Amino acid sequence: MISIVLPIYIRNKDLQDVLLGYFKEALDSIVQQTYQDWQLIIIDDGSVDPLAIETVVNQSYKVLVEELKIKILHNEGNKGLVYSLNRGIESSSGEFIARMDADDISHPKRLEMQYQYMKSHPEIDILGCKISMFSGTDEGKVIQHPDSSLSNWSMFFNCCLVHPSVMIRRHSEKFIKPFKYSNKFNLIEDYASWLKMISKYNITTSNLQSSEPLLRLRKHGESVSIRNIQKQKEQTIRASLYYIRKLVKRLNVAVEEDILQENIMWILQFPSQSLNNDTVALVERSFKFLEVIEVIFQRLEGYDKQLIKESTSERMGEIIALLFSKFTSNPNNSNLWNIWIKRSPTSQIISLLSLTSLQGNPLFNNSNSSSKTICSANSNQYKKNGIRLVCFSKDRGFQLGEYLHSFYDNLEHSDNDGFQVEMNVIYTFSNEIFGNSYNRVIEEFRSLKDINCNFILESSFTTQLKDLVDGNTFKYILFAVDDILYYHKFNLNTYCQVLEKEKECLGFYMKMHSNITYCHTTDENIQIPSELVVHDNGTYQKWDRTKPDCKWDWNYPFDLCSTIYRSSDVDNIIKGIIKYYGIKSGISHPNRLETNGNKTIIQKTCYQHLKYCCSPTIPIMSVITINRVQDVFQNRVYEVDNDQWSLENLNQLLLDNKHLNQQEYHRNSSTFTSVHIGNFYLQIK
């Protein structure tokens, strides 16, 4: 069950009707949730007319009050937000605690999506979500804070969990006592509590990466954040500094005495407001402060060291850009530039060079030439006759097993015995049950002597991906995901020979065929390219993806759904991703890798000389899109009975030695008009 804690305080009788109207909208948005196993705890913190609050609730939801699904608590006077929140938590009984403010509006699926994510990610202790701000009828900005890869690190620069959007695990292995808010910094009780939990217990925070906001945050004159904005900033600085000092002491980090100071923290948290003629001399010390935080997260367990380094460089780059645009004559600019450039901040250099105000700065002269040569691959490296496959899997041992079974069942070997096929699986899991299932799959396939299959437990996705790409010596490479199923015989050597022949083709797209007329990802019909040409008596088809009638799947050049590329091209594409988007935002997750690969090719107009694509003419495989495990983008899945295809039930299929029916998929393949399908055929013995 989810316990929703909603404090309310109406201090002004004149504004009561307006604020009660907001409260009613907030209340409605909770009652209308698709997930219904909840209780709502409303805490009236000494409002001017407590009876009016009860009246609003009872007029619409008296039955829910009688059933104790909604409870109203009244404080004796105005006790403050921390007291009210902790009282609400103490009066609740849910496994998870969700926050809600009395003037905000939750998306109907907010609780369902956050609950499902928390259940499938037991390592996450506090989960926020994407929010949109609004005032009256005016829609404001949309805010999406980072996921677990960076949210804890980012927390020391700004509060990257929007308080009324969070869902909190009541108990965790990391903290035995139930969650409770800290009153040490009373105006930023949420931020101070997150910092305390991170520094004391090393909890994991994250934000659900959804396609649309799950909370609408209302801004008005009575908002606490508007009334106390300057005092909140001051407490934010003090709280962040306080808990950084705690971590420095606990981890025994060496630091100069004049670094961990409030005036330095102001530059890191509010640089545009803090940098002036008096404070510009403190920038070098702010860089040292950043490096202290970098060391802290290098020593804490569970963080990607390369990602933390990249993020630290990015933060420095933002300050450099501001400094060089506003204080061009600062005598220390050259020294700061040299400090920063030694960190090899490739993507940030490109961003800075795009600022017209910096184009004439002599410090950039050497950077221009180096950035132009970023995407130069060593084509002599890729001479090995064969293909390296890289498959990504998370929490789906059953689906990975079916992917591997179907791959090796349908793989045809060429007469050319020199062509080698090497399979690599990067896998990760969120709990011991799923981990044991992966061990079962690994044991089965490692026992097969006639295949070359390597299993790599994910520890640092970025590093492991780069190792597989940078250390590759095969001529070709193919990326895949674990929900692919092959059901028709295929020959990888034949497909690679097509790329050898078709010099203007970027890749051979095994997922495509001549029946693809629907894009499931965008839920719309698409047109088969008018200039689609069949070659070699139906062996393959070819089209120009840049033509106007090539939409979505017909123009999705960088793909992780079983597409074959030349290894040298992938090397260049990944370097291009890092060049334009950095490691952190570029390749730290399979979905970022795919999305930014396409942006690099389409938006940055790279590889326009390789505008053609090839594919089989008949269906070879499909992506069985029945569940979602990644948290970067909320891609569409087929809407079915969630319990039937839950990760737990699919995992049980693996334990019961069940398999998908490849023959049934083959028989029905002529009806598949989309790359992504929802068909689920099990073998019946």
From TrEMBL:
<dbReference type="GO" id="GO:0008417">
    <property type="term" value="F:fucosyltransferase activity"/>
</dbReference>
<dbReference type="Pfam" id="PF00535">
    <property type="entry name" value="Glycos_transf_2"/>
</dbReference>
<protein>
    <recommendedName>
        <fullName>Glycosyltransferase 2-like domain-containing protein</fullName>
    </recommendedName>
</protein>
<dbReference type="InterPro" id="IPR029044">
    <property type="entry name" value="Nucleotide-diphossugar_trans"/>
</dbReference>
<dbReference type="InterPro" id="IPR001173">
    <property type="entry name" value="Glyco_trans_2-like"/>
</dbReference>
<feature type="domain" description="Glycosyltransferase 2-like">
    <location>
        <begin position="3"/>
        <end position="146"/>
    </location>
</feature>
